[in-house]
């Protein structure tokens, strides 16, 4: 005997058959569709955000007293000099024209040049960006590995000593600001136990080991807070996922425990933690400014800070644009990942 | 206490010693606060045999069968007695050993099948996952086997069903999918704990028929758990009546139903005669 239910029996079984017809069209629930929606939403937000932020930074530059002639030539500038300079930089044109040509040039990769050094802003950024991306990227990596492991280990040992220890340490860490953590790390691992340099930076071309040794402390200082937050969110999400029947169901099938946790529970329990990463990315980008100051690293943060102190408007505008782009792109990635992870039942909306 | 609380044991008729697949003896299960939830339950089940466990909600049926899976709720533990499966002491198993037993030797289905499937993963993938990870099949072989299995359990359009998510399927379909997952590694024992409880009567009857067919076809032993006497009386050879963590009556199902000795069993039988599925089922039998 091979067939169990005869077609007649099943035809009578309306509850079994009805939904089949309704769901013949799979598209509304497919993961790819969710990802496309997330991408579309992300872009729909990113474009106006970019427009507004560039407009605002541009306006701040244009309407501040900053003036290349006054800034560069100083007190000795004659009115004629100032006028010539303003014309040279196009500052005598109407605002919308200036903004329009800035946007147009930016779209072509030209962010203007520093008022002081005449170095193209795009070049300065290209030089500094690897530093900031190294620190922020490594900090993110540390957060994911440290926070991920901490959260999983705590969740699997719910209520036991390990869980309480991890939770307590994570709670303590989130109260420490990045610059305090940075100074603390310098004192301990660069001064008391001098295993890492106190600050500075060498490019990766100087050797991966050397490059990494300069990054470890700043990346830790920057990533600790995110690790702690991630560990706490992951623990909470995973603990509630582990209580679900589908975890029991996966165990009943004899699937290895590691697979039950990493495939079945984590898939549904990780969403809040990933959302937390999304929230932390702007903080990592922003925090890099402070961390770069503490560790004296020639990154984007230092470039922006120096430009702000000198009133070098094109540089400020260019680096803010890049910072905003970084945040927008990374939150887009996070949202796409979240859309991919969302339970199918919640995807339809 | 009166004789009412003692077990009316007629001895499991079909089982002869040494032949039993499952031997549970004086099983005790305790809550973390020391409350005894199951107090000395014993039963045997022969290879390919069927056992019904009936009793009101909270009588310890689920905990008893969970001890056969080594999956008691957090904090609850077996504190006494023995649980032997095919000569193997299940109480002594470690986690990796349990993983070899669950699925491939003992399968289980439960009430609310949707909740036992991962909501984010298509049902076909959850079935082929077991076939690949535990059964060692290749991706394509697993897919083929999955489709074949679902087809044999009376599902239509299996290729479509395989790509669907749990929330897209009806209760009856989900229970078939769960049954397919439970038997895909060819276990010797299937536990069905209130597996038909949430289904409506027609579907319930179909799924019960399916259990019986699968049991005969695959030669597996069945433990059918329900608070509803009609469900267990329909397709089991032996019956266990539980109340407050103890077995109040045990014996061949027909005999227990025809001549209930314990007042609680009598109550169940009267209730069963008055309100149950029986009327519907008799009518269905008459139609065939
Ligand atoms: N996780 C738990 N914590 C504490 N008590 C529980 C838990 N699960 C079940 N129980 C108790 O154990 C007893 C038996 O439960 P159960 O085996 O689920 O009964 P049944 O399946 O017959 O309805 C009930 O009194 C119930 O309250
Ligand atoms: Mg139960």
From TrEMBL, chain A:
<feature type="transmembrane region" description="Helical">
    <location>
        <begin position="133"/>
        <end position="156"/>
    </location>
</feature>
<keyword id="KW-0812">Transmembrane</keyword>
<dbReference type="InterPro" id="IPR045621">
    <property type="entry name" value="BPD_transp_1_N"/>
</dbReference>
<keyword id="KW-1003">Cell membrane</keyword>
<feature type="transmembrane region" description="Helical">
    <location>
        <begin position="168"/>
        <end position="195"/>
    </location>
</feature>
<dbReference type="Pfam" id="PF19300">
    <property type="entry name" value="BPD_transp_1_N"/>
</dbReference>
<protein>
    <submittedName>
        <fullName>ABC transporter permease</fullName>
    </submittedName>
</protein>
<feature type="domain" description="ABC transmembrane type-1">
    <location>
        <begin position="129"/>
        <end position="338"/>
    </location>
</feature>
<feature type="transmembrane region" description="Helical">
    <location>
        <begin position="201"/>
        <end position="224"/>
    </location>
</feature>
<keyword id="KW-0813">Transport</keyword>
<feature type="transmembrane region" description="Helical">
    <location>
        <begin position="43"/>
        <end position="63"/>
    </location>
</feature>
<comment type="similarity">
    <text>Belongs to the binding-protein-dependent transport system permease family.</text>
</comment>
<keyword id="KW-1133">Transmembrane helix</keyword>
<dbReference type="InterPro" id="IPR035906">
    <property type="entry name" value="MetI-like_sf"/>
</dbReference>
<dbReference type="InterPro" id="IPR000515">
    <property type="entry name" value="MetI-like"/>
</dbReference>
<dbReference type="Pfam" id="PF00528">
    <property type="entry name" value="BPD_transp_1"/>
</dbReference>
<keyword id="KW-0472">Membrane</keyword>
<feature type="transmembrane region" description="Helical">
    <location>
        <begin position="320"/>
        <end position="342"/>
    </location>
</feature>
From TrEMBL, chain B:
<keyword id="KW-0547">Nucleotide-binding</keyword>
<keyword id="KW-1003">Cell membrane</keyword>
<keyword id="KW-0472">Membrane</keyword>
<dbReference type="InterPro" id="IPR003593">
    <property type="entry name" value="AAA+_ATPase"/>
</dbReference>
<protein>
    <submittedName>
        <fullName>ABC transporter ATP-binding protein</fullName>
    </submittedName>
</protein>
<dbReference type="InterPro" id="IPR017871">
    <property type="entry name" value="ABC_transporter-like_CS"/>
</dbReference>
<keyword id="KW-0067">ATP-binding</keyword>
<feature type="domain" description="ABC transporter">
    <location>
        <begin position="22"/>
        <end position="269"/>
    </location>
</feature>
<comment type="similarity">
    <text>Belongs to the ABC transporter superfamily.</text>
</comment>
<dbReference type="Pfam" id="PF00005">
    <property type="entry name" value="ABC_tran"/>
</dbReference>
<dbReference type="InterPro" id="IPR050388">
    <property type="entry name" value="ABC_Ni/Peptide_Import"/>
</dbReference>
<dbReference type="InterPro" id="IPR003439">
    <property type="entry name" value="ABC_transporter-like_ATP-bd"/>
</dbReference>
<keyword id="KW-0813">Transport</keyword>
<dbReference type="InterPro" id="IPR027417">
    <property type="entry name" value="P-loop_NTPase"/>
</dbReference>
<dbReference type="GO" id="GO:0005524">
    <property type="term" value="F:ATP binding"/>
</dbReference>
